[in-house]
Amino acid sequence: MAQTTDTLLLVRPSRFRKNEETAVNNYFQEDVSDPNRTLRAQQEFDSFVDQLHTHNINTLVIQDSGEYDTPDSIFPNNCISFHQQTVVLYPMFAKNRRRERNLGYLQALKQRGLTYNRVINYTRFEKENRFLEGTGSLILDRVARIAYCSLSPRASADMVHQFCLDLDYEPFIFVANQTVDGLRLPIYHTNVMLSVGTHFAVLCTESIDNRAEKERLIRRLQETGKVVIAISEEQMHNFVGNILEVKSTTGKPHIIMSSRAFSAFNADQLNQLHVWGSIIHSPLTTIEKAGGGSARCMLAEVFY
C-alpha cells in the first residue's frame, strides 16, 4: 500500500461563488463581490492543472456543466475517495453539496479504464444528520492504516468508526479549534490543519486546545515515522496545512500547495519539506477566498 498516487481527479467549476450553505461553519470563506469570480476561478483552476501536467502528474478533469447548481464542486475530495478496488461515497453536511454526486465521477473513471469492484455508500446517513466529508474530514495514513479526524459538524465520531471498520483503519479522533470573533470553534475540515505525507506531517499544533490530546497526536505521528512540522494558527489560515504529497508518473515525490501557502511557510519549514518532495504551487486566490478551501481540497486522489 502506497501513501501517494500519480493520478488526481479534479472538477472544473461552472458557476463559482461563496456557498451560502457551507459558510455557516466554514470560517475560511470570504465574500467575493467580483462579478468575474467564475472566470477567475476557472483561470486559476486551468493554471493549476497545467502545473500538475508540467510535473508529469496524471489528471482526470470533469467539467461541471452547471446543471445542478453545485458551487463547491471544485472540491471533489469531500464527496468521494478511492482505494484499491474500493470507492467510498460520503454523507455531506450542506444539502446543495449532495448534488455533486450527479457529476459522474465513476463514469469518468470508467471511460479511462478504471473500474472498482466495491462501492461503500454512506450517503443514507445524511437523513440522520451524521456526516463525514471524505478526505476533508479524514487524513489517511494509508501505509500505517490510521485515519486521523478532527470532530466538527461535518465529521461525526460514529461515522469515523464506521469507515475504519469497513476499510480496516485505526481511528485517531481529536478536536481542533480556531478563533472566530473571540470564540474557539471547531475547524470545519481536518485537512486545513493536518497533512500527512510519507515521511512528514504538517500540523497546526495551536489549534488543539487539549494539551494531552495534542501530545498524544504528535506522539502517534512520530511513532509512524513522521517528522512533525508545527505551524501556527495564522499560517493555517493561509492554507499552509492544506497541502498534499503526490508522485509523478516516474515516481518522483511532489508536494502540492497554493502560492499563498507557499509564501506563508517560513524558510526552515520549506527546507524540511524540500527533503521529501519538490514543491508545486499555483495561485488560487479567488478559489481560496470564496470557497474556503485550497489546493488539497481540489484533489481527489485516485488509487486503483
UniProtKB/TrEMBL annotation:
Domain of life: Bacteria
Gene3D superfamilies, per the entry: L-arginine/glycine Amidinotransferase, Chain A
Identification of the protein by name: Amidinotransferase
Species for this entry: Sphingobacterium micropteri
Organism ancestry: Bacteria, Pseudomonadati, Bacteroidota, Sphingobacteriia, Sphingobacteriales
